[in-house]
Write a structure and sequence with these properties.
- This protein is of the alpha+beta class.
- Helix content is 39%, strand content 15%.
- A hairpin with a 4-residue loop joins strand 18 and strand 19.
- The termini are far apart.
């Protein structure tokens, strides 16, 4: 083939991939822009995305595939010419939390990895890097296809199956109507692991346009239907779905969206845990107490997805709304995360956030953001965008090591704790899997649109460019290091642009169009622009837009203290939506407060991801405290040191303290050190009384 012909051929293939991907994304997320239509510009988010792509290339793809090759029997060949000959010896399986055989999650990381590569491919705009990502995606899909084909003639419940769990009898036994082997392997959370393969195939098709992955996904969907075909609804709920099972119902609802095959919608409902569905038909603020957090969130994502594709499934929608409301209003703390040691507790036990270093789990927030996107599509309520920003900016962005690109499982909030980071090809935790995906999704919710393209919502103030058949604009901002954003319209048209008014901004919030202040002058379909301080809303701008029109948004930020609910003697310091933290140790060996941070980089041990298991906590009494009335702390003890870097000086001096001043910086920048997020705050009188 001539060089010019080869280039044309590759271009045609690339266009085909893009076309398939765009169509699939529009089917699943009709109010979201195709991920490739949003380009991140220079910002902390783009830096994190680029660093994460580099991290993805460090992973040994063949070793991640070994569990699937093994379980399909492909490596049993004695034919030296076979590509799978001696595979397991050449590519030894990664240790999965090193507690085999009582605990095995073989294959879950491979599924997450396929999703991560696919999201990175869609979000990346460097053609050379995209090509490398696509090659890796296609390579994985081809091998997984061989694994699925190995079961084509199976009659014992494995036809269509792809999986890496080291015991296929889990599924062959379940296919007979028995749950004995499933119960025996309960700690392996079998359906949770399988969900990651489902999601990986979906994402390889939806974001990377791989049609083979779509065929395989349908095969997996058929397998999921058949493997529980002899399990009735009652046993399904109590014997199968009582265990953590990820978002099986979500991906089956997605499969229905993509195929319109009603069998998948029926299956999505069968895989919906009715105990959790029925339990949140009313806003019961005690129902979730003591439950494992990340077991539940994906269920409600699935409930919401089912309600979006089946208008008659109102109970699913109700459960999702009530769940989100309870989680955000009652169980979410300053950084936007939730849970201690993976579990939810009543607010009366919020002291656990202070006493236990195993704070909010990354996976929980990863999933809460997915649920939030879906609910926003239903209501276009700015409160969802406010929460999304809070969690993305303060939790998700903080879970990446800026040195190595490693991921964080638990984010400690106990005073003077520090993060533990994963190491590529060593730590294989669930939050490594979701962490791989997180940093390619920053462009997914900056902008959304109505189904009829009459309204464009600007949900997040993130430097970016949007290019779509209907809309084109550029958003220039240094947020969170500035309190303004300039949006240039690049494509003419008659439509509404809705600009977010965050609850955290001051009464000086302002929107101008081509220099004219229109903050209080606009309405759309009888929806008035609301700019009431403390209330999240949108300002609707309906006009005949011309290329070159400029929208300027000013959203002043101010310092505030956010008490830990119930334990309100502990407070977090915020500037606008940004949680501020202070380092209390240094990684510089010459500093007086140097701390080596034992086990900061995790190994392969079962609990190496958990700070409370691998490090010694400093006493709470050794932590710096805030002395004074809260208004006085904000006005007298915090001063700017570098506003452009969101750096502040905090006066923590008081009698008997070794601390004088500390530097406050955005929490996501307080890495590789011990830090303070929640501070004990006492009046002078309370402090004097405590010292007696």
């Amino acid at each position: 083939m001539k060089k010019t012909s080869a280039v044309k051929f590759l271009l045609i293939i690339c266009i085909a991939f893009i076309g398939t991907s765009a169509k699939a994304q529009n089917l699943l997320y009709p109010q979201h822009f195709v991920l490739s239509e949003v380009t991140l510009l220079d910002s902390p988010f783009k830096t994190a995305m680029d660093r994460n792509i580099n991290q993805l290339f460090l992973y040994d793809t063949d070793r991640l595939l070994t569990p699937f090759v093994r379980q399909a029997g492909l490596s049993e060949t004695s034919d030296a010419a076979n590509p799978y000959y001696n595979w397991e010896k050449l590519h030894p399986n990664f240790e999965n939390w090193t507690d085999y055989p009582s605990f095995a999650l073989d294959g879950h990381e491979g599924g997450h990895y396929l999703s991560a590569l696919s999201l990175a491919y869609a979000a990346c705009h460097d053609n050379s890097i995209k090509d490398s990502l696509l090659k890796r995606i296609n390579y994985i899909v081809d091998i997984l296809n061989d694994c699925q084909r190995a079961f084509d003639n199976n009659t014992e419940g494995l036809k269509g199956y792809i999986g890496g769990l080291p015991d296929n009898t889990i599924w062959t036994d379940l296919y007979t109507g028995s749950n004995a082997q499933l119960t025996e392997r309960w700690a392996w959370v079998p359906f949770y692991v399988i969900h990651k393969i489902f999601a990986g195939l979906r994402d390889a098709y939806v974001y990377a346009g791989n049609n083979t992955a779509f065929d395989m996904l349908k095969g997996m969907g058929d397998w999921a239907i058949n493997v529980v075909s002899k399990i009735d609804e009652c046993d399904m709920d109590t014997l199968v779905l009582a265990n953590e099972h990820g978002g099986i119902n979500e991906v089956l609802a997605d499969l229905y969206s993509l195929t319109k095959d009603t069998r998948y919608l029926v299956a999505a409902k069968k895989y919906s845990h009715k105990k959790m569905l029925n339990g949140m038909q009313t806003l019961d603020t005690s129902f979730l107490d003591y439950r494992h957090s990340n077991t539940q969130v994906p269920k409600y994502i699935g409930f919401e997805r089912i309600s979006q594709v089946d208008s008659s499934a109102s109970e699913y929608h109700t459960a999702a709304i009530n769940y989100w409301t309870d989680m955000v209003d009652n169980r979410t703390i300053a950084i936007g995360g939730n849970s201690v040691d993976e579990h939810l507790f009543p607010q009366s036990e919020n002291n656990k956030y202070i006493t236990n270093s195993n704070g909010p789990e990354t996976c929980n927030t990863y999933n809460m953001l997915k649920l939030t996107e879906n609910l926003f599509d239903d209501f276009h309520d700015a409160k969802y965008a406010d929460f999304y920003e809070k969690a993305m900016l303060n939790h998700i962005l903080s879970t990446q090591d800026p040195i190595t690109g490693g991921y964080v499982y638990f984010t400690p909030l106990r005073p003077q704790s520090y993060r533990v980071y994963s190491v590529a090809n060593k730590a294989m935790w669930c939050c490594v899997g979701s962490g791989m995906e997180n940093h390619s999704k920053y462009g997914h919710f900056i902008y959304t649109h109505s189904a009829d393209n009459s309204t464009l919502w600007i949900n997040l103030f993130t430097a970016s460019r949007l290019d779509n058949d209907n809309f084109s604009l550029t958003q220039e901002t240094d947020f969170p290091y500035s309190d303004s954003s300039t949006i240039t319209v690049n494509k003419a048209g008659n439509y509404t642009i809705a600009v977010r008014h965050p609850a955290w901004t001051t009464e000086d919030y302002k929107v101008t169009v081509n220099g004219e202040d229109i903050t209080d002058k606009v309405s759309n379909n009888d929806i008035s622009a609301s700019v009431t301080k403390g209330v999240a809303s949108f300002v609707y701008l309906n006009r005949n837009w011309q290329a070159g029109d400029i929208i300027s948004v000013t959203f002043p930020m101010e310092l505030s203290l956010e008490p830990l609910p119930v334990c309100d003697d502990y407070v977090a310091i915020k500037y606008g939506p940004v949680v501020l933290a202070a380092r209390t140790s240094s990684n510089n060996t010459d500093d007086f407060n140097y701390d080596a941070l034992p086990a900061q980089y995790a190994g392969t041990g079962r609990m190496d991801h958990a700070p409370d298991s691998v490090t010694d906590s400093l006493s709470l009494s050794s932590a710096p405290v805030l002395i004074g009335l809260r208004d006085n702390i904000l006005k007298q003890r915090i001063t700017y040191s570098n506003p452009q870097e969101l750096s502040f000086t905090l006066d923590v001096s008081h009698e008997g303290s070794k601390w004088t001043t500390l530097q406050l910086i955005p929490f996501y920048k307080a890495q590789n050190a011990r830090y303070m997020v929640y501070w004990k705050q006492l009046t002078e009188e309370e402090y004097a009384k405590n010292r007696k």
